[in-house]
Structure formats: structure tokens, C-alpha cells
């Protein structure tokens, strides 16, 4: 878990949030124009291994076992984004949503 100072918390409430995502699939950059959303999460049981996962809704097809690396950044009252790593992930499945073309 990343700790933030009180000034950061005040700035988030005052100025709002601006997020940026940098993803790579097999070391190839994915444009943010091709992404609809990125939703990181995890599952764990007490005294068990933490299983991280990330759900990506995009306009691109990513075959199974594609390696995904990336960072999520937030900009608050600054000119640059502060990024945190998302770790490494591998595509488990890729499904086409015909109604949203994603």
C-alpha cells in the first residue's frame, strides 16, 4: 500500500483527479485511445497468497498468455503524473463484446 501525505489528499479533493495509464502488451505500447477502462483488483483468503488481477476493456485483441505490464499515474496540482507499477500480468482470456465493439 502506498502512503500519501495530507497535502496530496487535500489537493485531490480540491482539484479533482487526472489519471493516466501506460500499458504494454509483450513490450509493445498500447495507446490510451485503444483503452476503455482498466480495473485492478485482488482476491485473497486469510493466510493465503494474494492473487492480483486486472480487467482491461480495450479495442484491441490480446491472445491468451500475452504479458501485460503497466503503470497508473495520477496528476494533482502538478505538471507531471506520479506513477505506480501495476506488476506483471498474463492474459487469461479475451472476449469480444459486440454491443460496444470492445
Characterise this structure.
With 102 residues, the protein is mostly beta strands. 10% of the residues lie in helices and 45% in strands. It is built from 1 helix and 6 strands. The protein has a 4-stranded antiparallel sheet with strand order 2-1-5-6, with no helix packed on it. A two-stranded antiparallel ribbon has the order 3-4.
What can be said about this structure in brief?
This protein is mainly β and 102 residues long.
Topology of helices and strands:
Blueprint (H helix, E strand, L loop, with lengths): L5 H10 L2 E8 L2 E3 L4 E9 L7 E8 L8 E9 L6 E9 L12
What is the subunit arrangement here?
single chain
- Helix/strand order, N-terminal first: HEEEEEE
- Biggest sheet details: 4 strands, antiparallel
What class do helices, strands and sheet pairing give?
mainly beta
The mean pLDDT is 80
Radius of gyration: 16 Å
By DSSP, the count of extended strands is 6
Number of helices: 1
Instruction: Identify low-pLDDT runs.
Output: none
Walk across the major sheet and give the strand order: 2-1-5-6
The separation of the N and C termini measures 31 Å
Strand content: over 45%
Shape: globular
Fraction of residues in helices? Answer: under 10%
Amino acid at each position: 500500500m502506498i502512503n500519501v501525505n495530507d497535502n496530496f489528499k487535500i489537493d485531490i479533493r480540491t482539484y479533482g483527479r487526472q489519471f493516466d495509464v501506460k500499458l504494454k502488451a509483450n513490450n509493445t505500447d498500447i495507446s490510451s485511445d485503444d483503452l476503455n477502462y482498466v480495473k485492478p483488483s485482488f482476491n485473497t483468503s486469510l493466510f493465503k497468497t494474494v492473487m492480483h488481477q486486472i480487467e482491461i476493456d480495450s479495442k484491441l485483441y490480446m491472445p491468451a498468455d500475452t504479458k501485460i505490464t503497466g503503470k497508473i499515474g495520477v496528476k494533482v496540482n502538478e505538471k507531471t503524473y506520479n506513477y505506480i507499477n501495476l506488476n506483471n500480468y498474463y492474459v487469461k482470456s479475451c472476449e469480444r463484446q459486440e454491443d460496444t465493439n470492445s
